[in-house]
Structure formats: C-alpha cells, structure tokens
Design goal:
The protein contains three helices and two strands, in the order αβααβ. The two termini are 26 Å apart. By secondary structure, it is mostly loops.
C-alpha cells in the first residue's frame, strides 16, 4: 500500500507487523474500532504478544511482566505507554515508548 507513508517509515526501530503489512492490525475495509483496528486494545496486541507467539515478551495469559490485570483490562491500552507503535527513531524506540 502506498498510503500513510509517514507511518511506514523508514524508522530506526521497526515494528515487524508494520513492515509486513498494515492489514496485520488494520482493516482497510472498515472497522467498528478506532483507527480501523482489527480489534480493540489490548486484545489486538495480544494477538501476537503472548509467550507462544512472541517469545521475547513475558505474558502468561493473565499478566505481562511488571504489569497487573487492571493495567491490561481496566480501560488502559498498551498504547498508553507504547505510543509510537508504527516505529520510532527515539533512543527508547525499541520498546516504542512515548
């Protein structure tokens, strides 16, 4: 896709799904979720960020390391901290933090 070049980079730190295809996270035909996402956060993120599918992330089905159930489920999204999810050129960019 040629749209949204600013989101595609290149960035010093790339989020692999962005490099692969926008449709990994977004539904180009429309969605009831914000930003045409395929699911609401944190559920969209948890499609990949679980121990069996993304081994570098500690997630046991109930919590991420240094996180609580409330942080995942009580209206708080992964993007509350990981805002630059498309990619980043910042020194803290590998974690896509604000």
């Amino acid at each position: 896709m040629g749209c949204h070049a600013d989101k595609r980079g290149p960035h010093l730190w790339e989020h692999d799904p962005v490099v692969e295809s926008c449709t990994t996270c977004h539904d180009p035909h429309g969605s009831t979720n914000d930003r045409m996402l395929g699911a609401k956060e944190p559920f969209l993120c948890q499609r990949c960020h679980v121990t069996s599918q993304h081994p570098s992330t500690t997630y046991d089905g109930y919590a991420l390391a240094n996180s609580t159930f409330a942080n995942r489920m009580s209206g708080r999204s992964c993007a509350a901290c990981h805002q630059n999810i498309h990619g980043s050129n910042a020194p803290s960019g590998k974690a896509f933090l604000r």
